[in-house]
Write a structure and sequence with these properties.
CATH class: Alpha Beta
Strand content: 25-35%
Bound molecules: flavin mononucleotide
Radius of gyration: 14 Å
Distance between the termini: 26 Å
Order of helices and strands: EHEEHEEHH
CATH topology: Alpha-Beta Plaits
Strand order of the largest sheet: 4-1-3-2-5
Length: about 140
């Protein structure tokens, strides 16, 4: 199994009905191929974790990356895992801080996840942002 984390920028401000549609399709597709994950949306930024069988994660990410609704996808982490972090959700959703998508990636990751109430989830993402910022 692997876990891939990326950040991208929406072409337009994200309306609730657009987000609902993305989540509905994601949940159906991901459940069918054993992918779980979390989507954090703040302003124009998407931050998403995808985890599951290698082939399924790769194919799902390639499809997402080609989606014209967003651009400038940057992979933040792509690693082999033995346990899922987001096993509860075929695609969970967390609102993030509203960002324009013009900030530095490490700063944006930290700011996006700051409002996440669940400290384990927040720690997973912000820990990564700190590693990137220190590098
Ligand atoms: C930010 C974002 C996240 C997405 N996440 C997923 C996802 O987790 N799983 C998925 O199947 N599609 C996801 N999609 C939608 C895909 O890009 C694509 O539209 C969908 O999988 C349907 O693909 P198809 O039209 O080729 O069947 C996401 C799209 C965006 C913009």
């Amino acid at each position: 199994m692997r876990r891939l984390l990326y950040i991208s920028t929406s072409r337009t401000p994200i309306l609730p009905e657009q987000l609902d549609r993305i989540l509905r399709v994601s949940r159906a597709n991901n459940a069918a191929v054993g992918v779980t994950g979390l989507l954090v949306v703040g302003g124009r930024r998407f931050l998403q974790a995808l985890e599951g069988p290698d082939d399924a994660v790769r194919a799902t990410y390639e499809r997402i990356r080609a989606d014209p609704r967003h651009f400038a996808a940057v992979i933040l982490a792509d690693q082999a895992i033995t346990e899922r972090t987001f096993s509860a959700w075929s695609m969970g959703y967390q609102p993030g801080a509203p960002l324009t998508g013009e900030g530095k990636i490490a700063d944006d990751v930290a700011a996006l996840v700051a409002p996440i109430a669940d400290s384990t989830l927040r720690g997973y993402f912000s820990g990564f942002a700190q590693t990137q910022a220190a590098a």
